[in-house]
Structure formats: structure tokens, C-alpha cells
């Protein structure tokens, strides 16, 4: 009954959560992270006060902890809505609702549905472990232990999750603007960062293993069980970091179908069978269920690493451009005329369409090169330079900005490298803080319930499990598609 009541009091939070995730993706695609960080931090602080008031001062008990989650999400949503509507930063990108919002729905669904499965398959497996723990001996203790382990894992998971959000935005921006090398660099920097983060967080978890259980319960049995789980939580977090970065890269490239298939196979063909074998057949209990989850994450990491290494970044840039064009948005270009001419070396001129990446005699323009190629139309011939054997000029002689293709390409690459390193490090920092605040909302609610009784904690854990699996995961449908589409659009400056 406690789980049912907890779910009912969390229903209002579903409506706020769906809208909130969409606004977060909209702002993150523009690298606007400071308002997100401030609003989420303020919300987390107020949630601490709200939990105390609704849980202990109103007589609602554990139901008050659920109500405080709803109030906090709505408060955060209101803050970000006010920022989007009245901030100068969103003046160009947000002009209000229009019929154009319903254009390109097919492309949106192609990204949204696989994105939903990526999130749902992961969350459903996570919550299924909690349900399986209820069939172990001493179910109240085992369910509470699994709940505490999952809450701890979720709390530290926000760090790689912030990197995942940042790398998804960064990759989609760079592919949309025609900078495949910068996208590849961002993935390398994020992967390097996440290794160090996993080691540091793992050591912290192991160091605090003997006192962590006291946050949730004063029972010595629970404290000892939590201490024995902390090393395994640290190991799973290390592998989770790679998973976050690689799935963020997958979303940034718009390859959500691959991500969904990998999640399905790793979690349900490897993880669940391994958890059942270790937890029930070999009698390892919650620890066995958790080790099975680690096996699934490890397999997923291996497969995603192979896909990332084999990624053709030039091809992904082309697909990003085509995705924007198929959605009815013209590709951004430095050449305003609808008709141009193209030649190879000093050969004869040939007609070329305005649209990028069109094939001519078995060849195609390199992604992003149109914005760098400026030629002097006063000369008798058009000469190509550097790596590109193709050059563009307009049909009619008009004054053009003259610049060296070699210098423009070199400067463009240098800009991509420096900005890639800077943004790949700075952007995740604010994103981590905001994600930490959102997870802290549920974490604090569970901590308050745990001090009522571990039976109430078990009921609240099952309630949150149900809401996360059925509600929050499904509501990620729209927002996960925005990861790719908003990123590409902002990269191409298609506001």
C-alpha cells in the first residue's frame, strides 16, 4: 500500500518532468548552461526544506516526500520557462509557437522512438533488478539494500551523465556546422576525462563505505550490507562512465537505432540472465544481481567502443546536413545564389546545385568546405588549393571576398581544436552540477523516508521504481530527439 500511495502523490511531477527535459535540451544545444545550473541548484536547496516540511510538519509522512518531488519539479520548470521567454540569450532561437513546429515530424519520430528505447531499456533493467530483489530471502532488507545501492549509483552517475549531455550537444553542433575533426576531438577529450573521473569517484565510494549506510538507516544490519556493496558500486560506476560518453556520441550522431539495439542485447541477453544466475542459482543475493548488471555494462562498452572507433566522421557530417534538409530546412551556406559553377583544376566549368554534398563524376564536396572556399573571379581560371580539388565561383562576375583556401582551412582546424578542448571540459562541468541537483531531489526524498522505517523505504523504492520505468523514461521521448535535432540546427544556425 505504501508504494501505491507514493506513486499517486508523484503523478503531478510527470507533467513537469516532460516539459522540463525538453527545455533542458533546448538550452544545452545552445551551450546555455549557467541558468540551468543556477535554477537546478536553487531547486535542490528548496527541496531539502520542502522534504522536511511535507514529511514531518504536515503529517503526510512518506507521502509528503513524494509531494515535495512534484513541487520541486514544477518550481524548476517555472524558472526555466521565465528565462526562455524573457532572456536576451534566447531571443533568436525562441520566437513562440507556430505551425512550423509540426513540420518534419517523421524525422523527429525516427530519432525520438529509438531514443526512448535507449533510455527505457536501461531504466527498465535497472528497476527490474529492484523487483527481483524482492524475491530473495529477507525481502525487506534485500529490497532496501538494492534501493540504497541504486540511489548511490544514480547520485554519482550524474557526473558522467553531465559529460554525456555535453558530448551529445558538442558532437551534434560540430557535425551540423561541418567540423568532423572537432567532433572527433570532443569524443577523445570526453573519454579521457571520464577515465580520471571514474577512478577518483570509485576511490571516494570505497573510502566512505562504512559510513554511507548511516545516511539511510541507523540499523547495523543495513549499514554492514551497504558497506559490502560499495566496491561493486564503484566498479559499475567506472564502466558506466564510458557508457555515458559513448551513448552521448551515438545521440549526437543521430544513430539512436544502434544505441537501442546495443542496449537491448547487452541488458536483456547478458545482464538479466547473469543477474538471475548469480543472485538466485549461486545464492549471491543482491551482490549477485549487481554483478550481473556490471557484466551487461561491460559488454555494452565493448560494442560501443568498436562502433565509435569505426565511425566515419565525414559521413556523419554529410548525414547531419541531409537530416536538416529532409526536415525542410535549407542548408546554411556562404553562397547566397541558387546557381554556382564548379571546376577541377583548370578544367571547364560545370554546373553545380546549391545543395551540399551533391555527387559529380563520382566525387562529392568535402563537408563544410563551402564556407571556406573563396576564389578570385577576375582570373581566367579557377584554381583549387590545399586538400580540396574543387573550387566554387558564381555564374556572374561579381566582387568576391578574396582569401587563401589554405589559410582558411588551417585557421578553421585550429579554431576547432582549441574550442573543442575548451568546451569539452567547461560544458560538462555546469551540466554535471545541474544533473546532480535533479538526482538529489529523489535522493533526498528517499533519505527522509528511510529515517521513518526501512519498510517505508522499501515501499517508496518500489514506487519510484515504477514511476521511473513507466513515467519518466517514456517522457524522455521528445527530449532525447531534441538532443540531435536542436544540436544540428544550432550548429548550422538554423534558428
From TrEMBL:
One example GO MF annotation: antiporter activity
Domain of life according to the entry: Eukaryota
Short name of one Pfam family: MatE
Stretches with biased composition (Basic and acidic residues): 402-425
Annotated spans, Disordered: 402-426
Topology in membrane: Multi-pass membrane protein
Compartments where found: Membrane
Signal peptide: none
Protein's UniProt keywords contain Metal-binding: no
GO process annotations (BP): xenobiotic detoxification by transmembrane export across the plasma membrane
An annotated GO cellular component: membrane
CDD domains named among the record's database cross-references: MATE_eukaryotic (cd13132)
Alphabetical UniProt keywords: Membrane, Transmembrane, Transmembrane helix
Transmembrane region(s): 6-27, 34-55, 67-86, 155-173, 185-209, 260-282, 288-310, 460-482
Record-stated family: Belongs to the multi antimicrobial extrusion (MATE) (TC 2.A.66.1) family.
Annotated NCBIfam families: matE (TIGR00797)
Name of the protein in its database record: Protein DETOXIFICATION
Organism: Vanilla planifolia
